[in-house]
Specification:
The complex is a heterodimer of chains A (301) and B (269).
Chain A (H helix, E strand, L loop, with lengths): L21 H42 L18 H32 L4 H13 L4 H15 L6 H25 L3 H9 L4 H29 L3 H6 L18 H9 L4 H32 L4
Chain B lengths: L4 H6 L3 E12 L2 E12 L3 E5 L6 H7 L10 E9 L2 E2 L7 H7 E4 L10 H11 L6 H11 L3 H4 L12 H13 L5 E5 L7 H14 L4 E5 L3 H7 L2 E9 L5 E10 H6 L4 H7 L5
Helix pairs in contact in B: 4-5, 4-7, 5-7, 7-8
The chains are: A mainly alpha (301), B alpha/beta (269).
Chain lengths: 301, 269
């Protein structure tokens, strides 16, 4: 609503040097808001379509007896995914165990301990670049180092180590951002009480940064678990009836899904949709745990 | 230039003493040639315009400037006769004995209890922590307001309460000196008054140095006052220096330097 001035107000109140165009400016803001809303809806809609499509094809198949417990089979309606599911659970747990401590440790060193000079700058740039390297390159690296140099062969541990390499730069970058976001006043308060650097880091910096670090962990581990290409290079198998252990050949869900999708029979299409649902549930469970921990840590913020 | 003689002779011995102190950030000289004795169980205020090095100097007294990359201190700052910047002195030990309260209240994002218990715990406190928390909160005049919510977040308190929590946190490690960097600048007048009253109680047990932009505050609370100002060096760079140091009533009523007179009467700065 426009403001009306009293009749007798002096001329200067009219402020002739200004053309406020309040209406125009406000409607421009409204337009921008709608554009943003449409962007959000496009993203959501595509995801919803994907979910709907997969659930429509795969939900019934997933609930069939033996799907979770059975072995893969060349007969589509008998095929189960137990070895692949166990393989992916193993991989997820190992990636967490390997890449999170190393990634957070590296980030802490870079942020809290390392001097800020040309060398640390160079290291930082390179870590960011590593986060963008295609996953197949990591697969080849793993093939050369873990399979070849360390003589592990195409086993689960080798796959887990390779995927950890893939997750590591993402975790380091996200952890550094989270650690950098810890207010300097918090560190000063701690040092001001006579805390050592380790006491400051362990009592204040790290707990404050945990939510941000976990966000990075969720993204990177979810990505690593869903990877197919590096595992193919490492030598994950498309069929095995044995449950995996650290040093055995192994299957993984993305590989099994890839195998099923590429078969001509329509029943395998349904099986692969069911496999996709299971993979999503696995990632959801992992994320749920991380979100739970994150909320526990942000209780006082 | 500095009239320090009459104060140091009329007061008890200095607990902290700055001698020929220059503070650099990289190659930039921030504080130039300060000589300043700090008397025990007194409140000393640092006043002066922004950028004159008051806070910088304050942070040298507990080596908090060590955390700033490129910060360097020349000259000596002695505490009971030992140079705080001697290679054998551990800054961690210094900071327990010389505590700090900051400009913006900065409680830890933890419970009120944890805020206070942290300092004693990391410093190997052997006594009863519950008692210590209660005593520290009582000494900082906060106990009655928070005694029923010690488990709640320190960040849920008002700004003035947060600052008193920070004071309680500082005194819980039983320091000898407390440095305060504009502790009331983010607070309303009523909270400010409470802190000023608190300072009078605290000076029985602690030696306090307070940086303030509030001239009335300096004249109300402090026993001695140091006036800092900026000057231009040969290259035209601005640097801070101590202009005058004396008993507070002298600084405010009968200062020796013209610039002090102008500053305390509000004519510049």
């Amino acid at each position: 609503m426009a403001i009306s001035l009293p009749e007798d107000s002096p001329q200067s109140f009219a402020a002739p040097n200004f053309a406020p165009r309040t209406q125009e400016r406000q409607s421009l803001g409204k337009v921008f808001e709608i554009v943003c809303l449409v962007c959000l809806l496009i993203g959501l809609l595509v995801l919803a379509l994907l979910l709907f499509d997969v659930i429509k094809d795969g939900f019934v198949r997933m609930l069939q007896p033996g799907f979770f417990t059975g072995n893969p089979s060349r007969l589509a309606n008998r095929a189960g995914l137990r070895p692949a599911l166990l393989g992916s659970i193993w991989l997820g747990a190992l990636i967490l165990l390997i890449s999170v401590p190393i990634g957070v440790g590296a980030a802490l060193y870079l942020e809290e301990y390392a001097p800020k000079n040309r060398w640390t700058n160079l290291i930082e740039i390179n870590i960011s670049n590593l986060a963008g390297v295609p996953s197949i390159v990591y697969g080849l690296l793993g093939l050369g180092i873990f399979n070849g140099l360390f003589r592990l062969g195409p086993v689960l541990l080798s796959g887990a180590l390779t995927l950890s390499l893939l997750a590591l730069p993402l975790i380091i970058v996200a952890s550094r951002e989270a650690i950098r976001a810890v207010p300097p006043s918090l560190r000063q308060a701690s040092y001001g009480l006579g805390a050592t650097r380790w006491q400051t880091v362990s009592n204040h910096v790290l707990p404050y940064a945990v939510p941000g670090i976990l966000t990075g962990v969720i993204i990177s581990v979810s990505r690593a678990i869903g990877e197919t290409a590096p595992l193919i290079v490492i030598g994950a198998v498309g069929f095995t009836a044995a449950n995996p252990d650290l040093l055995s050949r192994f299957m993984a869900l993305p590989i099994l899904i890839y195998d099923w999708v590429s078969r001509p029979q329509i029943d395998f299409k349904y099986a692969s949709a069911a496999g996709i649902i299971v993979l999503m549930l696995l990632i959801l469970a992992l994320n749920g745990t991380a979100i739970y921990v994150r909320n526990r840590f942000s209780v006082f913020k | 230039m500095q009239s320090t003689s009459q104060t140091s002779s009329s007061q008890s011995t200095a607990i902290l003493e700055a001698k020929d102190v220059n503070v650099y950030y990289g190659s930039f000289l921030a504080v130039h040639d300060v000589d300043l004795p700090i008397a025990r169980n007194q409140i000393t205020s640092f006043i002066g315009p922004s950028g004159c090095g008051k806070s910088t100097l304050l942070r040298c007294f507990n080596r908090l400037n060590d955390l700033v990359v490129g910060a360097r201190v020349e000259g000596s700052i002695t505490y009971h006769g030992q140079n705080l910047y001697d290679a054998s002195i551990d800054a961690v030990e210094v900071r327990r004995r010389i505590g700090m309260v900051f400009q913006k209240p900065n409680p830890f994002p933890k419970s009120i209890y944890e805020n206070i218990a942290f300092g004693p715990r990391i410093n190997g406190f052997k006594g009863n922590t519950d008692e210590l928390v209660e005593r520290s909160l009582k000494q900082s005049a906060l106990w009655d307001e928070v005694k029923d919510k010690l488990k709640e977040s320190g960040l849920a308190l008002s700004g003035g309460q947060q600052q008193r929590l920070c004071i309680a946190r500082a005194i819980a490690v039983e320091p000898e000196v407390i440095l305060m960097d504009e502790p009331c600048s983010a607070l309303d007048p009523i909270s400010t008054l409470r802190i000023e009253e608190l300072l009078q109680d605290l000076k029985e047990r602690f030696t306090i140095i307070i940086v303030t932009h509030n001239m009335q505050q300096a004249s109300r609370v402090s026993d001695t006052t140091a006036f800092f100002n900026t000057e231009l060096n040969e290259k035209g760079q601005r640097r801070g220096k101590l202009v005058e140091f004396d008993r507070t009533e002298v600084i405010f009523n009968n200062p020796a330097q013209k610039s002090t007179q102008e500053y305390v009467s509000g004519r510049f700065g």
